[in-house]
Design brief:
The protein is mainly α and 225 residues long. The chain contains five helices and no strands.
Amino acid sequence: MSSEEFEKLHEMYKHIYNDLKSMPEIAAKCRGEEKKRVVREFDEKSGEAEEVLKGMDEELLLAPSSFRNPMSTKMRMYRRDLGKLQRDMKSTDLGLGFGARGESRYSTYTAENERSTQLQSQRALILQGTESLSRATQSIERSHRIAAETDQIGTDIIEELGEQREQLDRTRDRLVNTGENLSRSRRVLRSMSRRLMTNKLLLSVIIIMELAILGAVVYLKFFRK
C-alpha cells in the first residue's frame, strides 16, 4: 500500500464532500435552469466521490490490518454520509422534465453506494479471515518447530544420560578394583606385621640365649676353681 496515495485520495474525497454537502440545500432554493445546473454539478461530483472511494478501497486492500480496520469503519461512514446527501438531493424538487432522470440517477448511485459498502465489508471480513488463517498456520509451524527441537533436546539428554551411566559403571568398577586392592594390601600388611613380631621374638630369644651362654662362660672361667 502507498500511504501517500491513500492520503491523497482521502484529501480529494474530503474536498469533494465539502463541496457536495451544501448542494442539496442550494438546489432546494433554486428554480429552473439554475436548479438543473446545481443538480448536474452534484451529479458529477457525486460520481467523482464514488470513484475516489473505490480507489481508497483498493488501497486499503493492501494495507496492514492495524491501519485497515479503523479506516474501513471510516469508509463505511463516508459512504453512509454520501448516500444521505444523495437522498437529500433526490428529495428536493428537481423541476419538470428533469425529476425522473435525476431520481433514476440518484437511485442508481444509492444502490451502487450500498453495494460498494457491502463489498467493502465482505472484503474486510475475507482479509481478516485470511490473516487469522495465516496466523494460525504460522502458530502451527512454530509449534511443530518447537516440538522437533524438544524431541531433539530429549534425544540429546537421553544420549548424555547413557554416557554418564557408562562413566558411572566404569567408576564403580574402578572402585571395586580399588577395594579389592586395598583388601590385599591389608592382608599383606598384616602378614608383614606378624613376621616382624615373629622376628622380634626370635631375636629376643637369641639375645637371651647369647647372654646366658656368655654368663655361663664368665662364671666357669672366673668363679669356678
